[in-house]
Design goal:
A 9-stranded mixed β-sheet has the order 1-2-13-12-3-4-6-5-11, with helices on both faces. The protein has 248 residues and is α/β, with parallel strands linked by helices. It has helices at 17-24, 51-58, 68-73, 75-78, 184-194, 210-217, 229-240; strands at 5-6, 10-14, 30-33, 61-66, 82-90, 106-113, 126-128, 137-141, 151-156, 160-162, 166-168, 200-203, 221-226. Helix 5 (184-194) packs across helix 6. Helices cover 23% and strands 26% of the residues. 32% of the residues are buried. It contains 7 helices and 13 strands.
Length: 248
């Protein structure tokens, strides 16, 4: 099948990923997906039935954006996957319009896997913090009896620590291509965690191409599929112009 766009790292196809991925026979290292949540009356916001079954044939590791409402509504479809963890993307401003609830300024990102956890690729996520002239700190944690004793672990090595599960990244503003476009800044740590260097990231709902761009920036290959040709065209233009946006 002819790609809509292709270069040495990025390949973009136009079509329905539920139909196209099996035909392509793609085998990736991880999937990064931002499916339509199916929570509005907008024409494009329709949950794509069957995509999780197809995803399981493509990769054994999956990051999925969504709301708690979305994950609960489709819990049975996620039942063939094993949940490893959840991450919260904290935005600088929310998009909720309800006037009688807490202002929603976050989205959830969940990581799922197939098979044994020991076989899943994962790179320890760290972040640089504080001073760089201090020695490491080994923390011995005493847990209540019902949780067990996890013993010692390196919590801080002088200039880095385990990355926290709440990631603060500014959401897209005026320059966004897609109405639900994710910034590269939230995608990069997810990709680096679940996909080895030079590995292959698959995005079944490519939209503006942010996941493909984040993969390319981090040295991974990426294949994306987008159903709306308007966004394929915009993403292809973005790649062909070599615009590598780094969102803080």
């Amino acid at each position: 099948m002819k790609p809509y766009y292709a270069d040495e790292l990025v390949t973009l196809y136009h079509g329905d990923s539920v139909e196209l991925l099996p035909a392509l026979g793609v085998k990736g290292d991880c999937i990064v997906a931002d499916p339509p949540y199916g929570e509005t009356s907008l024409a494009w916001d329709k949950w794509p039935d069957g995509w999780l079954d197809v995803a399981a044939t493509v990769a054994r590791s999956l990051w999925c954006f969504g709301s708690l409402r979305m994950f609960l509504a489709h819990a049975d479809e996620f039942s063939t996957w094993k949940l490893s963890q959840d991450v919260i993307w904290e935005k600088h401003n929310g998009s909720g319009f309800a006037a009688d609830r807490f202002k929603r300024v976050h989205e959830s990102v969940t990581h799922w896997y197939q098979g044994a956890w020991g076989d899943a690729y994962r790179a320890v996520p760290t972040e640089v913090v504080g001073r760089t002239d201090r020695g490491g700190h080994v923390r011995s944690i005493k847990r209540p009896a019902h949780t067990g004793d996890i013993g010692q672990r390196l919590d801080y090595d002088g200039n880095s620590r385990l990355m926290r599960s709440v990631l603060k990244v500014r959401s897209m503003q005026g320059g966004a291509i897609h109405p639900t476009e994710k910034p590269v800044g939230i995608l990069t740590p997810l990709i680096e965690y679940a996909c080895p260097p030079d590995g292959l990231v698959v995005d079944p709902f490519a939209g503006s191409g942010s996941t493909l761009e984040a993969a390319r920036i981090s040295g991974r290959r990426a294949i994306g599929i987008e159903a709306n040709e308007k966004y394929c065209e915009a993403a292809a233009r973005r790649f062909s112009q070599g615009v590598l946006e780094m969102t803080p």
